[in-house]
Design a protein that fits this description.
Layout (H helix, E strand, L loop, with lengths): L7 H19 L7 E7 L2 E8 L10 E5 L9 H12 L4 E5 L21 H17 L5 E6 L1 H13 L4 E7 L7 H9 L3 H13 L6 E7 L2 E7 H6 L1
Parallel strand pairs: 3-4, 3-5, 5-6
Antiparallel strand pairs: 1-2, 2-4, 7-8
Length: about 230
């Protein structure tokens, strides 16, 4: 009998099993879903709707919100929708516009950053209303990273009885914003915040600041309102 503990044979068999699984998954047909859109504040908002077999929207929907400047087709969102579908749960994965009409894919750091937290909450509210108009009787709100932060704020501010549960995937909170920023850019977050705060206090919320490190975008062009909001 082989002693598999710490043996090269065991590692080989595990590798073969892993490669077999990857090969099998490569031939699994992904769910096509249905792309839906709504109009909000003169912008087209996009989402991907997945209805579980034998279910209708009236049976409940998981509303999924992506992370900071991401989108509804990034890997973790697609995987979440597929996992939910495999377990007979319908879902709607939305893409925040961030001020871009019919936005798809990641937000381009080279664009002007004028989007705010409040706008994101407004778009989330618009999708909740759309689901309500479709006679959805229960919403589970699932959100990733910065989206989880937005989802928490939304549920507190709205206290909507239609939302029965909230699921936070690797939530990005205010507490870790400063250390993450300084680790990424090697610059003082407080100094930049103080600079922006002066503009906010002076009523210059729309003033653009050039070459300001913001979120995942180094040397971006960012409005005072945007930096302060997040």
């Amino acid at each position: 009998m082989f002693n598999f503990k710490n043996s090269s044979l065991m590692r080989f068999l595990i590798r073969i099993r892993y490669l077999s699984l990857v090969t099998m998954l490569a031939f699994v047909n992904p769910s096509l879903g249905e792309e839906v859109s709504i109009q909000h504040q003169s912008l087209t908002l996009n989402a991907n709707l997945e209805i579980a077999e034998g279910k209708s929207m009236q049976d409940g929907v998981v509303l999924i919100l992506h992370g900071m400047m991401a989108h509804n087709r990034m890997e973790i969102i697609e995987a979440s929708q597929q996992a939910l579908l495999d377990n007979d749960h319908s879902s709607l994965a939305i893409t925040l516009s961030l001020g871009v009409d019919s936005r798809k894919g990641f937000f381009d750091c080279a664009l002007l950053h004028t989007h705010t937290m409040d706008e994101a909450l407004g778009e989330l509210a618009a999708w909740v209303q759309w689901l309500r108009e479709k006679s959805v009787n229960k919403i589970v709100l699932m959100a990733h990273s910065r989206g989880a932060n937005q989802a928490m704020v939304y549920t507190v501010e709205h206290d909507d009885p239609l939302i029965s549960h909230i699921i936070l995937l690797a939530p990005n909170t205010t507490a870790n914003a400063k250390p993450n920023y300084e680790a990424r850019y090697g610059k003082s977050f407080d100094n930049n915040l103080a600079r922006v705060q002066k503009l906010i206090d002076a009523g210059k919320r729309s003033q653009m600041l050039e070459e300001l490190d913001f979120s995942y975008c180094p040397k971006a062009t960012v409005s005072a309102a945007t930096f302060y909001s997040y």
